[in-house]
Specification:
mainly beta, Immunoglobulin-like, ten-stranded mixed beta sheet
């Protein structure tokens, strides 16, 4: 059954519904949609253009079909295309970059809370991407759920079959209605089609604008028990000393649905051998850099720990990378327990881990808990608590409260939000103010995108399990972008202009300026084909109270510095097989000048089997205190035999450390949840001599074979 009025689609009202038809017949996952059950499926007969021209007709007819049995949700999508040869594919990798590909996506609001849910996306080659949604602009794509999909190409376009096991989702058994939306992207002309939420101000992840999926009340989660043991063999070799070791190891993850809405997870002897290495970064600032979490155990349910609005990476009360990593060294995780989910209007996330002793830290217990309450359809209030210090010696705790009010109907159909937060720490903290607070106002829409943020971090605020690079500061941030979309005329080649001004002003707690920056964009354009060109001007101020070593042996003396930076950026469209881009920063830098070149080039075969990318950053500083050159070179190569068998290699070199390293991984997914990983890590160090010399000697070698299996009941 399908109920829809054209006016409802364009307004984004939640008045449309589709009913999943129940099937007793098995569905063979091959992308063909040729089983008889598909002819009886609940159907959405058409998706409507959302971008660039909402509601306008397109040649890309799209039909969506929905089936359900006791244990699975099946979604079939028929994507007609008048020129199938131009369908864009750039990867077959799990969680690969799909932004330049022809894709279809499904989002599910399984609790009908209009806030949280799941996203599933595949491209025309069957590459899968999934994520957890915690708000209209907040999705974590690092979650890996157990589900599957297949696609098939034909003379009229392509088709997709998606199967999502009930055990992969958290929902209330017997609830017959979920929030639901479907999106299709045609990469070559950057057309987006959706079922609901078809205004330019609508996000696919905004469940306030979605439709309803009926007929899911019969889905059964079973006992809700999932057991995932792993076993591995690791060979480590120190090539400098000639010493090597071979070690076997094993561990276990157990997941159990404590209630239909609440899940418990137990991990024993946790290992992350298959995790991709961090992307190296050049740091020309006085503050530590942010590196994202990549370990699967901590990523699952991570959105439940998101705290505060307007914080970004300036303050993260709970930063899971503090667990199992200390001062750049690994710390063993003996075990951990997580509780994730909902209870009525309450959202709950709790994590407790026990780490073992190592050469850099003592063993200890580390805890983080986050609870939020959906007061009504607009207002969410919450609290967060962390306890423990990763060094295993000092005491530390952090407490915080926050609130967020948001709507998608401001002045009719605009997005608007207001948020605030407060936090304070206890334990073995530095002297000073141990609290922090912040307020934010956000108007994130297509034509006008405006915001204002004020936040303060006490000089004694110490989140030992968090990330706070600049304590003892007060921030004022604001600005906006005017983003018109020309229609025809001399600017018919333009998809959208972006005229932007963003201001950041940071002062110490005494009210004295520490730094400020004005980022202005006199020209920023994205063409109809997706090519991008931009110029920027960024005057800024920095006050140094102590010498700043910007590079090895180059110290900038204390003082106040005004300088202006200029940027030019050019990038080709993501949908092309060959893609290139360059970003150049020019201008003054403290007492001298700095030129930064960032370039990349990539190539993908039309089938998506082979993907190559080369990135290079070369920074040239000329200061009275000394000259310096910083280089960062990275290459990525991936060969996909199928979407389930991927061989990839990531190689990095940076001149600051002088180290060259490669991380090569083979991942074979026998079936969703069952994986074989073969990981090879090899490291070289630069031989002292000329800075420009490319002579290296091997220093380390590691080979890991890991098998992970999943059993469900």
């Amino acid at each position: 059954m399908f109920l829809l009025s054209p006016g409802a689609v364009l307004a984004g009202a939640r008045t449309a519904s589709v009913t999943a038809a129940f099937t007793h017949e098995p569905i063979h996952l091959d992308g063909l949609l040729n089983e008889p059950a598909w002819r009886r499926a609940g159907t959405i007969p058409v998706l409507v253009q959302q971008s660039p021209n909402p509601g306008a007709p397109t040649p890309y007819h799209t039909e969506v079909k929905v089936l359900v049995d006791r244990k699975h949700l099946y979604i079939g999508i028929v994507c007609s295309d008048p020129d199938p040869a131009k369908i864009a594919i750039h990867t077959m990798e799990r969680d690969g970059n799909l932004r330049g590909d022809d894709t279809v996506a499904v989002v599910l609001d399984t609790f009908n809370d209009h806030r949280t849910g799941y996203a599933f996306r595949i491209n025309a080659a069957g590459a899968r991407q999934d994520g957890l949604i915690s708000g209209p602009d907040n999705i974590s794509l690092d979650w890996d759920g157990i589900w599957d999909a297949r696609t098939a190409r034909n003379a009229h376009g392509w088709t997709a079959e998606i199967v999502i096991p009930a055990e992969t989702l958290r929902f209330r058994p017997g609830q017959d209605h979920w929030g639901f939306n479907v999106e299709r992207t045609v990469a070559r002309d950057r057309t987006v089609l959706r079922w609901q939420g078809t205004t330019l101000d609508s996000s696919l992840y905004d469940f306030r604008r979605d439709g309803t999926l009926d007929g899911v009340g019969g889905l059964q989660q079973g006992k809700g028990l999932s057991i995932s043991p792993y076993g591995l063999v690791r060979n480590d070799a120190d090539l400098g000393t000639g010493h090597s070791t071979i070690q076997g190891d094993g561990g276990l993850d157990v997941t159990y649905n404590l209630t239909p809405d609440l899940t418990g997870v137990l991990t024993l002897n946790t290992d992350f051998a298959e995790t991709e290495v961090d992307t190296r970064q050049v740091n020309l600032t006085r503050f530590p850099l942010f590196f994202p979490e990549k370990r699967s155990f901590f990523l699952e349910g991570s959105s439940l720990f998101t705290f505060g609005s307007g914080l970004n990476h300036d303050f993260i009360p709970f930063f899971s990378r503090r667990i199992g990593l200390y001062n750049g060294h690994q710390v063993p995780i003996l075990g951990g327990v997580k509780v994730l989910g909902r209870a009525g209007r309450w959202n709950i996330g709790a994590l407790d881990t026990i780490t073992g002793s190592s050469s850099v830290a003592d063993g200890t217990n580390l805890f983080a808990g986050r609870v939020t309450y959906d007061a009504d359809e607009h207002l969410t209030v919450g609290t967060i608590v962390t306890d423990g210090d990763p060094d295993g010696i000092h005491d530390n705790a952090l407490y915080g409260v926050d609130a967020l009010w948001q709507t998608s109907t401001f002045h009719g159909d605009k997005n608007f939000s207001v948020g605030g937060w407060s936090a304070w720490s206890a334990g073995d903290n530095p002297h000073g103010r141990r609290n922090g607070w912040g307020l934010s106002v956000d108007y994130p829409n297509d034509l006008w995108n405006l915001f204002f943020i004020v936040k303060e971090f006490g000089d004694g605020l110490n989140p030992a399990l968090g990330f706070l690079p600049r304590p003892g500061t007060r921030w004022y941030q604001g600005g906006g972008a005017y983003q018109p979309r020309p229609h025809g005329g001399p600017f018919g080649w333009v998809r959208q202009f972006f005229f932007e001004t963003f201001i950041t002003y940071v002062e110490d707690l005494g009210g004295h300026a520490e730094s400020w920056r004005v980022f202005m964009t006199p020209f920023n354009v994205v063409t109809q084909s997706g090519d991008h060109a931009e110029t920027n001007i960024a005057p800024q101020f920095e006050r140094l109270d102590a010498p700043f070593e910007v590079a090895n042996g180059v110290l900038i003396p204390p003082g106040e510095y005004h300088f202006t930076r200029y940027r030019v950026q050019l990038e080709s469209s993501r949908h092309r097989p060959w893609r290139a881009g360059v970003t150049v920063w020019l201008g003054n830098f403290y007492t001298g000048s700095l030129t930064q070149w960032e370039t990349f080039v990539s190539y993908t075969t039309p089938s998506g089997h082979l993907r190559l990318r080369l990135d290079a950053e070369n920074d040239f500083g000329h200061l009275p205190q000394g000259n310096f050159i910083q280089r960062l070179w990275q290459t990525k190569v991936a060969w996909a035999f199928t979407p389930d068998i991927i061989l990839s290699s990531y190689t990095q070199f940076d001149s600051e450390s002088g180290n060259l390293g490669t991380n090569t991984r083979l991942r074979w997914t026998f079936r969703p949840g069952n994986d074989l990983f073969v990981v090879w890590n090899h490291g070289w160090e630069h031989i002292p001599g000329s800075p420009e010399s490319l002579s290296f000697r091997p220093v380390s070698n590691q080979l890991v074979v890991k098998l992970r299996w999943t059993f469900r009941e």
